[in-house]
């Protein structure tokens, strides 16, 4: 069985970013770029499913400009077998990404599709659910456990009120949460081997997908900052201030 | 399609309307500042308790619920809601684990790009939402005739029940899809106020060191009638359950008072609590970034401070 993993290139979560003063965009100059942490967890989950013998091939897909090939190579170095780059310089949104991924699903016929639950730049948390709808596949979102069970996959989901386990028939879409696994690091020999692994480039036009944006980001603002607070010296002083100054107790 | 009609999809609640749903109605009130609106509610349950609570809400034209419901999975609900939603200019749902799972699936069936985590409504077409873990607030614009919004509940006030005059309408329920089957659920029994609804929240981080030490926080919370939250590090280390995580990928809350104990204040954590009205930080490292957002900071060892707080309260 084939697993398809969708990965996104984002600013590394360790980098602090701010919008330009004129609100025209994010100032990302020279920021270190990485695989979205949730997508890295999805890649790791796929590798473990392959190691367990559940899957035979891992295909990674990324949508974006030529530079996303860096993240595809990184995923190949971690253990993916093959990559597809959908090349576009257009601005992206989850609906068009889901349509592109669906076109790849139709070509490739994976039994399982893994995505991150959320991209840490746009914080959308949409693409996996949209892809599942477009394919009419079951979905297991916010997964913290994935267990193949016969011809089903059991997915434990992290919800507001606790945990829920669903049995999904295959093919299915799963989006990964942070506690699913701890991604491995690539080894030097694997990084070298990854350079030889197949990476194919497609375009939205070849896949027949229209990339027109439905939601336009007009401007970005710096969030209102909290006024500087004070340091208190003792528990007594803290409680006094909470009672008389902040009036919250 | 009637652009001046909004459909609010209510998440099933244990009792009554549910806090998240009441806050989504607060977002409808915010949109009404710009546009006279007719508002209908649709329930994803036929529990009489929620029906009664929904009918009691003010300024609602119609409350709909399904005659029968095979399950509440997104696979089943999305096509059903897609057919119900077709005549509405707006569809609102809470951006929580229920709404985040469902809204994009519904949107894709309607060939629509939804806007999730909406924190402000600036005009009938223009909305605000935080991006990059709250490092920027995006102002987004859409001309789609149908606007599907996921509402960040911490950003809107709950609407209180009133003397509702809504029509009650039973609609045919969804057909079962049977693509996913519920195997088990581990719901956490709530001994304290719910995190997203609490007036006061005390939260612990890696500084608490282990699961047992969280008992100190529980005792403090009980003195304050507070909910207990946690950083990702505390959840990952197994000190507490996942549903207590506050932050970019956990819950987003805005209580009156947030007390962060042994939490460093990473941007991913701040994304979940920086809209709290008053923030207190207790940390032994004077340079911890949590102090940058704290109204009151106490540089001290939490193991000295917590017992003292508990006795003095
Ligand atoms: C994609 C992604 C998503 C994330 N999402 C979230 C999220 O939703 N929520 C979240 O919280 N994090 C999230 N994180 C993790 C985040 O980056 C931090 O790693 C995490 O918040 C740190 O938790 P902490 O403050 O408890 O631990 P630490 O950073 O280790 O801080 C512990 C603090 O305790 C203090 N301390 C230790 N002992 C004592 C003592 N005896 N007395 C007083 N103070 C003491 C220390 O000085 C320190 O400041 C995310 C990270 C990534 C990459
Ligand atoms: N440009 C992209 N290329 C490939 N996959 C993507 C892209 N954008 C989003 N995804 C996938 O969708 C997930 C959720 O993203 P989002 O809906 O933007 O929060 C990500 O973790 C990826 O798995």
Summarize the structure.
In chain A, 29% of the residues lie in helices and 32% in strands. Chain A is of the alpha/beta class and 249 residues long. At the A-B interface, strand 3, helix 3, helix 4, strand 9 and strand 10 of A face helix 3, helix 4, strand 5, strand 7 and strand 8 of B.
- Structural category of chain A: alpha/beta
The most extensive contact between chains is: A-B, 82 and 85 residues
CATH level-3 fold name of the largest domain in chain B: Rossmann fold
The major sheet of chain B is characterized as: 7 strands, parallel
Described by strand count, sense and barrel closure, the largest sheet of chain A is: 9 strands, mixed
Tally of contiguous helical segments of chain B? 8
Bound molecules: flavin-adenine dinucleotide, adenosine monophosphate
Task: Determine the CATH topology of chain A.
Answer: Rossmann fold
Total beta strands of chain A: 15
Number of domains of chain B: 2
Helix coverage percent of chain B? 25-40%
Q: Output the strand order for the largest sheet of chain A.
A: 11-10-9-12-8-1-6-7-13
Query: Which residue ranges of chain A are poorly predicted, with pLDDT under 50 across at least 5 consecutive positions?
Result: none
Let me know the average pLDDT of chain A. 96
Comma- or semicolon-separated keywords:
heterodimer; A: about 250 residues; alpha/beta; Rossmann fold; nine-stranded mixed β-sheet; 7 helices; about 30% helix; about 30% strand; globular; B: about 325 residues; 2 domains; seven-stranded parallel β-sheet; five-stranded parallel β-sheet; 8 helices; 16 strands; binds flavin-adenine dinucleotide; binds adenosine monophosphate
Q: How would you portray this structure in words?
A:
- The complex is a heterodimer of chains A (249) and B (313).
- Chain A has helices at residues 37-51, 68-78, 94-108, 127-135, 188-194, 204-207, 235-244, and strands at 2-6, 9-11, 18-19, 26-27, 33-35, 57-64, 82-87, 112-116, 139-149, 152-159, 162-169, 172-176, 199-202, 215-221, 230-232.
- Chain A is α/β, with parallel strands linked by helices and 249 residues long.
- Chain A has a single domain, classed as HUPs (Rossmann fold, 3-Layer(aba) Sandwich).
- In chain A, the strands form three sheets. A nine-stranded mixed beta sheet of chain A has the order 11-10-9-12-8-1-6-7-13, with helices on both faces.
- In chain A, helix 2 (68-78) crosses helix 5.
- Chain B has a seven-stranded parallel beta sheet, with helices on both faces. Chain B has a five-stranded parallel beta sheet with strand order 13-12-14-15-16. Chain B has a three-stranded antiparallel beta sheet with strand order 6-7-8.
- Chain B has eight helices and 16 strands.
- Chain B starts with a strand and ends with a helix.
- In chain B, strand 14 (257-261), helix 7 and strand 15 form a beta-alpha-beta unit.
- At the A-B interface, strand 3, helix 3, helix 4, strand 9 and strand 10 of A face helix 3, helix 4, strand 5, strand 7 and strand 8 of B.
- Strand 14 of chain A pairs antiparallel with strand 8 of chain B, so a sheet runs across the interface.
- The structure holds flavin-adenine dinucleotide and adenosine monophosphate.
């Amino acid at each position: 069985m084939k697993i398809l993993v969708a990965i996104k290139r984002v600013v590394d979560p360790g980098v602090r970013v701010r919008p330009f003063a004129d609100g025209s965009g994010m100032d990302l100059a020279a920021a270190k770029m990485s695989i979205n942490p949730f997508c890295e967890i999805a890649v790791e989950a796929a590798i473990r499913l392959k190691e367990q013998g559940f899957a035979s091939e891992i295909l990674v897909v990324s949508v974006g400009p030529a530079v996303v090939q860096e993240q595809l190579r990184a995923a190949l170095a971690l253990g993916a077998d093959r990559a597809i780059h959908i090349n576009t310089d257009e601005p992206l949104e989850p609906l068009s990404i889901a349509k592109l991924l669906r076109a790849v699903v139709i070509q490739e016929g994976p039994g399982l599709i893994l995505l991150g639950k959320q991209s840490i730049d746009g914080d959308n948390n949409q693409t996996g659910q949209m892809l599942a709808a477009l394919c009419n596949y079951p979905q297991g979102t916010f997964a913290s456990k994935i267990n193949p069970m016969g011809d089903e996959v059991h997915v434990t989901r992290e919800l507001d009120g606790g945990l829920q386990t669903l049995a999904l028939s295959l093919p299915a879409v799963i989006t990964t949460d942070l506690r699913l696994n701890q991604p491995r690091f690539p080894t030097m020999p694997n990084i070298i081997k990854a350079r030889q692994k197949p990476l194919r480039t497609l375009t939205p036009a070849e896949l027949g997908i229209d990339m027109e944006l439905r939601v336009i980001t007009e401007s970005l603002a710096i969030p209102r900052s909290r006024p500087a607070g004070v340091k208190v010296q003792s528990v007594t002083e803290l409680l006094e201030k909470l009672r008389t100054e902040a009036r919250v107790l | 399609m009637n652009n001046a009609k909004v459909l609010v999809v209510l998440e099933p609640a244990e009792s009554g309307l549910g806090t998240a749903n009441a806050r989504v109605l607060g977002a409808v009130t915010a949109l009404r500042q710009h546009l006279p609106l007719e508002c209908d509610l649709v329930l994803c349950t036929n529990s009489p308790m929620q029906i009664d609570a929904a009918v009691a809400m003010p300024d609602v034209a119609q409350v709909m619920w399904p005659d029968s419901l095979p399950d509440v999975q997104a696979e089943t609900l999305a096509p059903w809601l897609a057919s119900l939603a077709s005549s509405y200019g707006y569809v609102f749902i809470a951006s929580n684990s229920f709404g985040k799972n469902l809204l994009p699936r519904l949107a894709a069936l309607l060939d629509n790009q939804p806007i999730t985590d909406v924190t402000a409504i600036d005009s009938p077409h223009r909305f605000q939402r935080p991006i990059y873990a709250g490092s920027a607030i995006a102002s987004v614009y859409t001309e789609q005739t149908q606007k599907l919004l996921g509402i960040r509940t911490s950003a809107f006030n709950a609407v209180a029940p009133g003397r509702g005059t809504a029509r009650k309408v039973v609609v045919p329920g969804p057909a079962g899809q049977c693509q996913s089957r519920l195997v088990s659920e581990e719901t956490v029994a709530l001994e304290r106020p719910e995190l997203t609804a609490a007036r006061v929240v005390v939260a612990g981080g890696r500084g608490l060191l282990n699961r047992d030490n969280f008992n100190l926080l529980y005792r403090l919370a009980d003195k304050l009638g507070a909910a207990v939250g946690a950083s990702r590090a505390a959840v990952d280390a197994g000190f507490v359950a996942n549903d207590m995580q506050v932050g970019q990928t956990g819950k987003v809350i805005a209580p009156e008072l947030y007390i962060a104990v042994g939490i460093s204040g990473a941007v991913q954590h701040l994304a979940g609590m920086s809209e709290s009205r008053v923030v207190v930080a207790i940390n032994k490292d004077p340079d911890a970034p949590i102090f940058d957002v704290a109204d009151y900071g106490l540089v001290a060892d939490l193991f000295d401070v917590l017992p003292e707080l508990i006795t003095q309260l």
